Amino acid sequence: MTSPHHSPIIDRFFDLMEGDKKWLVAEVFSPDAVVTDDGQSHHGTAAIIDWLGGDASEYEVTSTWISSRELGAATAVTQLLEGNFPGGRVQLVYTFEVGAAGLIDALSIVAE
Predict the structure, then answer these.
(1) What InterPro entries has UniProt attached to this entry (predicted)?
(2) What is the DSSP code (8-state) at residue 81?
């Protein structure tokens, strides 16, 4: 997924999430980053790697890019996910905060 409307590190996040080596996604996060997904927060590299090996890779999914918009210092990307998870289809909003070093400092994922 490539969009001229957001940071290249966000594109890298989605590219790596499409692969089968989810733990590689940790490279796009700052060491003290926080990921909030499904109401749970994961702080720091080790916790994010655990999240990537659990909830983030539990199901087989395909994703369709819907939109990307700036929200002040944050970027919100909306995707439609379809797969073998309960319900089979969900639209998610990924809200990214990218730090001065060009890495993701915070990511919040919520169903829309």
Answers:
(1) NTF2-like_dom_sf
(2) E
